[in-house]
Design a protein that fits this description.
Blueprint: H1 2-6, E1 44-48, E2 51-54, H2 55-73, H3 81-104, H4 111-122, H5 128-137, H6 142-162, H7 169-176, E3 178-186, H8 193-208, H9 213-220, E4 232-236, H10 244-252, E5 262-264, E6 267-277, H11 281-314, E7 317-319, H12 322-331, H13 335-348, H14 353-365, H15 369-382, H16 387-399, H17 403-416, H18 421-433, H19 437-488
Antiparallel strand pairs: 1-2, 1-7, 3-4, 3-6, 5-6
Helix pairs in contact: 2-3, 3-6, 3-12, 4-6, 7-11, 12-13, 13-14, 14-15, 15-16, 16-17, 17-18, 18-19
Length: about 500
């Protein structure tokens, strides 16, 4: 959880984001230069079991997330804003649900626990003044921070209570054990499973009469990845990404034993175990604690996910903002409803190019390319100064073999963002595909200019650092000289 991270010395002096729910840990990506809506009112963006998420709360969380991600990832395009806003809403919904469940469970957080968290956070700062400066920079009061910590601890306690699991010695043994096996796969022809089973029986009888399993695998197995290796599939444990019937049969075998035909979705298998790693000895004892921790983490994640999915299914969530509601419909693959909501959002914000971009994406998923293109073109008309919009439209033209129009959009994008190395590299590759060598050369030159500017900036920084170090060294020498002179006087 977030506050646990603040207890160590690697303090991230970014935004304080509270109550980060494990299940809601979908990676956010923050959006460009569209920031806090200073005109936000107490309009209700959404309701979670009747509890309101107001516009001011939503916009502040959105801005906090933008700041956090831009601090670590740099400026992210405006075309990503809608996705960020949607996941900001999801985060707030998750927070509300978790806090509601914590209150229903009557989970208590004491003042001593909050004070301990405050003290741990303060350890990251040299002085109280530095801590107060940081707190002020986050736009928080001491009371607000304490409330956030209280809520976060309540959620942590709820999470711990939900995910409490008991791992037995038998669980650890099963997780440690592995077998090394080979197999022969007989596939059904024309969906004739009985014929495949009978062929597997015939091959098994040949093995039992003394023929080599490995040689019969080379001549009979339908598994082309393993047949030339005598059917060897290597070591695997009970949690391997393999058919459960195959795993169960393999672990029942002794070394050298040949299974009866085992049916999976691929066909019938003859399995031979060649080695076993048993849960015993010094290596097993040394690995037990690590295995236990892994099993606990995996079981906790599964238990929490199942619990939270039921919480979400039972919750009454109402989203009032049409753009966010549209994105919710997209997430649920309810595309016609998404179209309707995007159109409503556009009526309210007719000059927003990114709503048209989103609507274009939905039309494309609905296999309506003409409407998709019209919305893309409208997005570019409204957001003419956004290089990425021109890039997206150009790529759409290129897919439609409208290469002249594509090239023009790419050239416009190039001129709008002269210092974006990634953009110019992408444009260079696109111009290559369009067989436009002159444009390729322009992009290469712009890339070189960016590199040269960066190198010049680095040299200037290094020169500044060197001058500073020399200045500090001269100051130290002067201070030392004064001390020596003072000490030599009678």
């Amino acid at each position: 959880m977030f506050f646990r991270a603040l207890r160590n010395k690697r303090l991230m002096k970014g935004v304080l984001i509270v109550v980060v729910v494990a299940f809601a840990g979908t990676l956010l990506y923050a959006g460009g230069n569209i920031f806090y809506n200073r005109g936000a009112t107490n309009t209700v963006i959404a309701k979670v079991n009747g509890q309101a998420i107001k516009a001011q709360e939503f916009e502040k969380r959105y801005l906090d997330t933008v700041r956090y991600y831009e601090q670590y990832q740099g400026t992210i395009p405006n075309t990503a804003v809608e996705e960020l806003r949607y996941y900001t809403l999801q985060q707030l919904i998750n927070n509300k649900l978790m806090l509601q469940k914590a209150r229903q469970a009557k989970i208590k957080v004491t003042k001593d626990e909050i004070n301990a968290e405050i003290a741990a956070i303060k350890e990251n700062f040299v002085t109280d003044e530095e801590y107060e400066y940081w707190l002020s920079g986050m736009g928080l009061t001491d009371a607000e921070l304490r409330t956030m910590i209280s809520e976060n601890l309540a959620v942590e306690k709820l999470y711990d209570s939900i995910t409490k699991v008991e791992i037995t010695e038998e669980d650890i043994k099963k997780a440690y054990e592995q077998v090394k096996a080979s197999h022969i796969l007989i596939e059904p022809v024309s969906d004739n499973w009985e014929a495949a089973r009978m062929q597997a029986e015939r091959v098994r009888n040949e093995i039992l009469k003394g023929k080599s399993f490995e040689e019969l695998a080379k001549t009979n197995s339908a598994d082309f990845q393993t047949k030339d290796m005598g059917g060897n599939v290597g070591y695997f444990g009970r949690d391997a990404q393999m058919d459960p019937n195959f795993i169960e049969a393999a672990f029942k075998l002794k070394v050298g034993e040949i299974s009866e035909p085992v049916r999976t979705s691929y066909g019938y298998h003859l399995i031979k175990v060649t080695e076993r790693i048993e849960a015993e000895g010094e290596e097993f004892e040394n690995a037990k604690e690590s295995i236990k921790a892994q099993l606990e983490a995996r079981a906790a994640e599964t238990r929490f996910t199942e619990w939270y999915q039921q919480v979400m299914a039972d919750a009454k969530i109402v989203v009032n903002d049409p753009a966010l509601r549209a994105r919710q419909f997209v997430a649920n693959n309810q595309l016609p409803q998404a179209v309707s909501q995007y159109q409503e959002a556009i009526e309210k914000n007719p000059s927003d190019p990114y709503l048209h971009l989103s609507l274009a994406s939905v039309y494309k998923q609905l296999d309506d390319p003409d409407r998709s293109l019209r919305e893309l073109e409208e997005a570019v008309r409204l957001g003419y100064t956004d290089a990425e919009l021109h890039l997206i439209l150009g790529m759409e033209y290129m897919d439609r073999k409208m290469n002249d129009k594509a090239a023009q959009e790419f050239r416009t994008a190039s001129g709008l963002d002269l210092y974006n190395y990634s953009l110019h590299y992408q444009l260079k590759e696109l111009f290559n595909q369009l067989d436009l060598p002159d444009d390729v050369k322009v992009e290469e030159e712009r890339m070189q200019e960016i590199i040269a500017a960066y190198e010049a900036q680095q040299k200037a920084y290094e020169a500044q650092q060197k001058a500073y170090e020399e200045q500090m060294k001269a100051l130290e020498e002067a201070q030392k000289s004064q001390t020596d002179d003072s000490g030599s006087q009678p």
